[in-house]
Each structure stands twice: as C-alpha cells, then as structure tokens.
Amino acid sequence: MTNLTPLSTSCMPPWRPDFAAPAHIFAPFSEAARFFADFAAWPGVADYNHLARALGIVTASGLPLTFMEQEARPRGRSRRAKWRASHVRYDESIYCLGQVPTRLGSWHDFFNMLVWMTFPQAKAALNRQQYREQPPLVGMPGRSRSREQDRLTMLDEGGVLAVCCAQGIVVHLVFGHALLESLLLGRFDVRGMNLPLVCSEGVAAGPVADLVRCADAALALRIGQGVTEAADWSLDEGTQLRALLGATPTSSGGLGEL
To answer: What's the rounded Cα separation, in Å, for the pair 252 and 109?
Structure first.
C-alpha cells in the first residue's frame, strides 16, 4: 500500500452506523462492528485505538497497533517527492513503528481497521511480508514491484477466503478492505481474489467467530509460506463475485438482504 491523501471534511461520505446490517458478508466483522453501533458520526483514530487496545492487537514485530491520522501531502511534484523522501513508508510505518496512517471519514480506511480487528494474525503476517517485499526508495536503481508484492496487495485489497471445512462445505469470507468498501457502496464492477483455505472440522457449524479465528490462523500461515507459488488464485468479475458471495445490490446502493 502507499501513503494516502487525507479527505477534507466536505468530501467525507455520510457515516452509516448500520453498515454491517445489510448482508451476511459483514457477519465475520460483527464483534468489532458492534463497538461502533452507537456512533452518530464518523469515529476517529482515538476510537480505533481504544478498540485495538481492548482486543490486544499487535504487529508481527510485536508492537501494539495504533492508528494515526494521515498527514496531508503537499501539492506539486517536487514538493511531494521531498515529502516522500522524508517520511516513513506505509508498510514500514506499521511494521517498525506500529502506526497505521489513516484517513478520517474514509470507508476504505475504516474497513482496513476493521479487518485488522477481525483477522489480526493474517493482517500482521501480511504487513510483515509487504514490508519485506517493498521496493527500494524512489531514485534508487532497480526499483520495481515483485510478483509477491502484487499478490499481497491484491489479497489485502480484494481477498475472498474460500474456507474449506468438513464434508466439502465451503464458506466464503471477505478479507479485502477495498472489496468491503465497494460492496457496502453497491459497486459491483470490482474484482475479488479467491483463495482456498482449509480449516478444522466442525467450525462451519459452530459460531462464526470460531470460523473467523480458524481462517485467520490458516491465512497467516499461508502468507508466511508465500503466495506467489499458489496455483489456486483466481480473479472473479463483478457478476461472478456477486454470485459467489450471495449479494444483491439495492436501488439505493449497497447490499440487499439475502
């Protein structure tokens, strides 16, 4: 991921405290989402940090995870280049400092936080790999993105976990925070990356929290083994993704009841 430009107050989309209500897609995030159910306006980084501390979320480097408001980048190419050269990069900020640059009033960044709260092992493993795979700084020879880094970014932004349980039961869980944002806003012209995982028998019939914990651990292990060697990655068009997740758009945008 890269540093993001903060949103001005006038550009913020309206806050929706019932964001997790429309469909089963958000069921895995229900425990963390409950914390924000009574908010009348957009939560801030202090609220994110309160939840992160309560859940004991840490990075792969062992640092307590904190969210910090994204600093505005200056206008102009030369000024932006100097700004980037003097600032810690996104993945480095998380791994080395435990700080997640976050834009206020952004569904994209809100769902990134929510995935951290729900899949902490997988997000920590993902950040560790993204940090290790990040290209050299701008201006250094040989700067390029690796195949592994592209795969990691695709998983982070648009991952869909096909969790294989007992007796051939497959449960699909959305992991990518950009995908969650798109689905909430009713944008189905997006792609999702489908990644099969194997969980222990019985979790599909139990509480969704047990399924999520199993998927979190399995995904963290898979990320640690490397994702470029996986032969079972696939990209689904929006219509296929909609069918895969059982979601339907409403006339007002967003997801309808299943």
So the answer is: 23
Residue with the larger pLDDT of the pair 250 and 185: 185
* Nearest CA-CA partner of 165 in 118, 199, 120: 199
Report angle CA 169, 182, 216 to the nearest 5 degrees.
40
Residue 86 lies in a domain: yes
163, part of any domain: yes
What is d(CA 175, CA 194) in angstroms, rounded to the nearest whole number? Answer: 10
pTM of the model: 0.83
Q: Which domain holds residue 190?
A: 22-245
In the predicted structure, residue 11 carries a pLDDT above the cut 70: no
pLDDT in tens, 167-214: 778 888 999 999 999 888 887 766 778 888 888 766 766 788 888 999
DSSP H or E stretch at residue 101: strand 99-102
In a domain, 8, yes or no: no
Whether residue 203 contacts residue 165, with contact meaning beta carbons closer than 8 Å, is answered with: yes
Total domains in the chain come to 1
> What are the residues whose beta carbons fall under 8 Å from the beta carbon of 218, sequence distance 6 or more?
163, 197, 198, 199
On whether residue 42 sits in a domain, the answer given is yes
Residue with tokens 């980084």: 45
Q: How confident is the model at residue 249 (pLDDT cuts 50, 70, 90)?
A: very low
Which residue bears the tokens 């869909």?
160
Query: Exposure of 63 by Cβ count < 10 A (0-12 exposed, 13-18 middle, 19+ buried)?
Result: middle
